Amino acid sequence: MSKIFCNYPWVHNYVHPNGKYRLCCTTSQDIVTNDNYHSFHAGKHSVEDYWNSNRMKQIRRNMMNGIKVRDCEKCYQQDEAGVDSLRNTAGMNELIANTAEDGTYNKPANYMQLQMTNICNLKCKMCSQMYSHMNGLELLEMGKVSPEWLLWVKEQGANVNNWTNELGEKQEWYKDEHYKIKMFEHISKNINDMNIIGGEPTLVPEFYEMFEYLDQHGSLGKMSITLVTNLTNTNNKLTKWLPKLKSWRIWASVDGVSDRTEYIRYPSKWSKILESLDFYKQLAQTSNGGITLSPAIQLLNVDQLDGLIEWWKGFVGGEINEKFGFTWLATVWYPLICNPNIAPQRWRERLADRLSLYKFDQFYDNFVANLRKEEIPLAKRQELQRSFIRYNDAQDRFRGIEKTWRDLCPDLATEIDHEQNQ
Ligand code: SF4
């Protein structure tokens, strides 16, 4: 089997929240235009404009000739480490046979990931300006009170906030009418399988406009759609469109039970999350839909892992199955202060002892076993714990919230104090 080839440059379109076209969600490289100095952008270029651009042809040529592509470095690293990567070689021979020697491929993709925007109504602990403009706005507001704090956050980079610039700016590629309609046309004609992500897509009027367009053009029946949502907002219009789809699935971003998810996904409300889950559950029971719980497992909720799974089982009627599933894909490793591996060794071992009494699946067992490993040496852990404290204490004070991380995770707070003094 090829160690280089991947079918994504043949079958997939990806639009990042900032509007840039990329090969897929794994890469951080934008597709450059033919001048080599700009990037293709959904508000300025159509899918057809980039599909057979010089860069796309070069990527396909390289893949066909066994030459590594820099965009795919992360997948190669995961493959070499024996970890499952997104790289997919399905249909390789046929795709190559239908590709010109210079890399031109004249069929359109039929699979797409559309990140509508970075507009969001939440400021989640593990998020950044790239996926929530509210996160950026809050950083700016906090920076007015303490410029020194904002500078520290920037300097910390991926340690505390996955820093990106352009704080507070909304990314709205679909505001260009011409390219918005071109995108809807492409989706309607070619795409059968689509993931829609934000920001929070349900806040964007063009999200509903797209469904209306697809409905009017008779395309919903051939499409399977996955919608990633924070469940703070539902719209009755979805009851008209979702049942017309070939299939649909909600990836439900819920990070804990009750006040824990409210803390991590600030300022969400548990009662509203339950109401939205109920909305989709009812709809799933009468159409070809389902819900997958997709928690961002991290330091601030890992102690609730067994409780969260048990709560989800109860909510969906006892068993996790194809209709009502669970995924580990949203597990958080960055920013590093959210990574469970920075927790004190004694706390992680005690937690692993308790969590191992609960039985779920192989990923759960692996996850719990990994908690016992000392992945990050003591000195580095202590440094990251200090960053965790500084970041969360400052945010809790600024938000004026009732229950701080110390109230919600008292054992963790005690053990961090203990490990800091070692
Ligand atoms: S190899 Fe990985 S990074 Fe490259 S296109 Fe495929 S999935 Fe994306």
Structure in words:
There is one protein chain. The chain is of the alpha/beta class. It contains 18 helices and 8 strands. The chain has helices spanning 8-11, 47-51, 54-64, 73-80, 92-97, 133-145, 147-156, 177-190, 205-216, 238-241, 259-264, 270-285, 305-315, 345-355, 362-371, 378-399, 405-408, 410-420; strands at residues 12-15, 21-22, 111-115, 193-197, 224-229, 247-252, 289-293, 324-326. It has an 8-stranded mixed beta sheet with strand order 2-1-3-4-5-6-7-8. Helix 13 links the parallel strand 7 and strand 8 (324-326). Helix 6 (133-145) packs across helix 7 (147-156). The mean pLDDT is 96. The structure holds iron/sulfur cluster (SF4). Residues 6, 8, 23-24, 26-27, 71-72, 74-75, 85-87 line the site of iron/sulfur cluster.
